[in-house]
C-alpha cells in the first residue's frame, strides 16, 4: 500500500514538475503534422525570436503574480519604455545606454504602480489599470499619435540581428531566464517574494515587510518590462504609440500556463519560459494555417480563461477540496 502511494506521489511530482514540457512536446508533434513547414529550422528560430518579447513580459507578470500582485499595464509600459529609448539611442549611438534608458523607464513606471499599491493600499488591478490609461495617453502625447521612424543606424540590431545562426532576441531571452531563475531560487529576495505571495500574514509574522516587498516586486518587474520595450522597438525598428496592446494578457497567460499560481506563491522561471514558447507555437501554427487575425485574438482570450480555470482546479486538488 505504501509502495503504491509512493509511486503515485512520484508520478504526481513528475507531472507537476515536467508536465508543461510534455504539453509543449505534444504540441510540437501535432503542429508538425498539421504543417510540414513548422518543424523547419528557419521556422523554429523564427518562433523563438518572436517569443522573446512575450517571454520578457511574462517574466514581469510572473514576478508580480508570485508576490500576490498583477499588472494590467505591462503592454503599455513596454511600449512607453521602447519609445523613450529611441531618442537616447539617436543622441548617443549606444545600444547599452539606450537599453539602460528603457529599463530605467520601466522601473520608474512600475515603481509608481508599486507605490500606489504599497503606500496607498490600492488593489494592483486598479493601480495598474490607471497606469495603463495614463501611460498610453502620455505616449500618444509624446509622439503626437505618429510612428517614430527616425531610430538611427543599427537600432534594429538587438531585435533583428544574429550571433552566428542564433537570433539575438533568443540569447537575450535565455539570459533573462537564467537571471530570473537565480533571483527567485537562489536569493533571499526571491524567497521573500514567494512568502509574500503565498501567505502575506504569515510573511508579516515572520518579520518580512510585506508592503516593501510588494513595491520591490514592481520595481524588479520593471527591469523586464523595460528590456521588453527595447527589444520590441528594435524588432520593428520604430516607435509605435499603439504598440503593446494585449501583451499583458499574453504575458499573464504564459505565466499561468507555465505554472505560476494565480493566487501567488508558486512558479518558476523555466516554467514561464516554456509557457511563453507554447504561446508562440500556438500563434505560429495559427499563422501557418492562415487563421484570421481577429479569430486569433478570440483564441488568445479563450487561452487566458482556460489557463486560469486549470490553475484554480489544480489548486483545489492540492488543497483536497
Number of strands: 2
Order of helices and strands: HHHHHHEEHHHHHHH
What's the average pLDDT? 91
Q: What characteristic shape results from the CA principal axes?
A: globular
Helical segment tally? 13
Q: Give the N-terminus to C-terminus distance in angstroms.
A: 23 Å
Radius of gyration: 20 Å
The stretches of 5 or more residues where confidence is low (pLDDT under 50) are none
Query: What structural category characterises the helix and strand content?
Result: mainly alpha
Q: Approximately how much beta-strand content do the residues carry?
A: under 5%
List the strand order in the largest sheet: 1-2
The main β sheet shows up as: 2 strands, antiparallel
Q: How much helicity do the residues have?
A: over 70%
Amino acid at each position: 500500500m505504501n509502495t503504491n502511494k509512493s509511486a503515485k506521489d512520484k508520478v504526481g511530482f513528475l507531472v507537476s514538475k515536467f508536465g508543461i514540457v510534455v504539453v509543449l512536446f505534444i504540441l510540437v508533434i501535432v503542429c508538425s503534422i498539421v504543417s510540414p513547414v513548422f518543424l523547419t529550422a528557419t521556422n523554429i528560430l523564427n518562433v523563438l525570436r518572436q517569443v522573446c518579447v512575450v517571454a520578457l513580459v511574462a517574466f514581469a507578470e510572473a514576478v508580480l503574480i508570485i508576490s500576490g500582485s498583477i499588472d494590467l499595464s505591462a503592454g503599455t509600459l513596454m511600449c512607453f519604455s521602447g519609445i523613450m529609448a529611441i531618442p537616447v539611442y539617436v543622441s548617443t549611438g549606444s545600444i547599452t545606454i539606450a537599453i539602460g534608458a528603457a529599463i530605467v523607464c520601466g522601473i520608474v513606471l512600475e515603481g509608481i504602480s508599486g507605490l500606489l499599491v504599497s503606500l496607498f493600499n490600492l488593489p494592483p488591478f486598479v493601480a495598474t489599470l490607471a497606469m495603463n490609461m495614463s501611460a498610453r495617453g502620455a505616449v500618444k502625447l509624446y509622439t503626437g499619435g505618429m510612428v517614430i521612424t527616425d531610430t538611427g543606424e543599427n537600432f534594429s540590431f538587438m531585435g533583428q540581428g544574429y550571433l552566428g545562426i542564433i537570433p539575438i532576441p533568443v540569447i537575450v531571452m535565455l539570459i533573462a531566464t537564467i537571471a530570473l531563475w537565480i533571483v527567485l531560487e537562489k536569493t533571499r529576495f526571491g524567497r521573500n517574494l514567494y512568502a509574500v505571495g503565498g501567505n502575506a500574514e504569515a510573511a508579516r509574522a515572520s518579520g518580512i515587510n510585506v508592503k516593501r516587498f510588494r513595491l520591490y516586486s514592481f520595481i524588479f518587474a520593471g527591469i523586464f518590462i523595460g528590456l521588453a520595450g527595447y527589444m520590441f522597438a528594435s524588432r520593428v525598428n520604430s516607435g509605435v504609440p499603439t504598440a503593446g496592446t494585449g501583451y499583458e494578457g499574453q504575458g499573464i497567460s504564459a505565466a499561468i500556463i507555465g505554472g505560476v499560481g494565480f493566487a501567488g506563491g508558486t512558479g518558476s522561471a523555466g516554467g514561464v519560459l516554456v509557457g511563453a514558447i507554447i504561446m508562440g507555437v500556438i500563434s505560429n501554427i495559427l499563422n501557418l494555417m492562415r487563421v484570421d487575425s481577429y479569430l486569433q485574438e478570440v483564441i488568445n482570450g479563450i487561452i487566458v480563461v482556460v489557463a486560469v480555470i486549470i490553475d484554480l482546479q489544480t489548486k483545489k486538488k492540492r488543497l483536497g477540496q
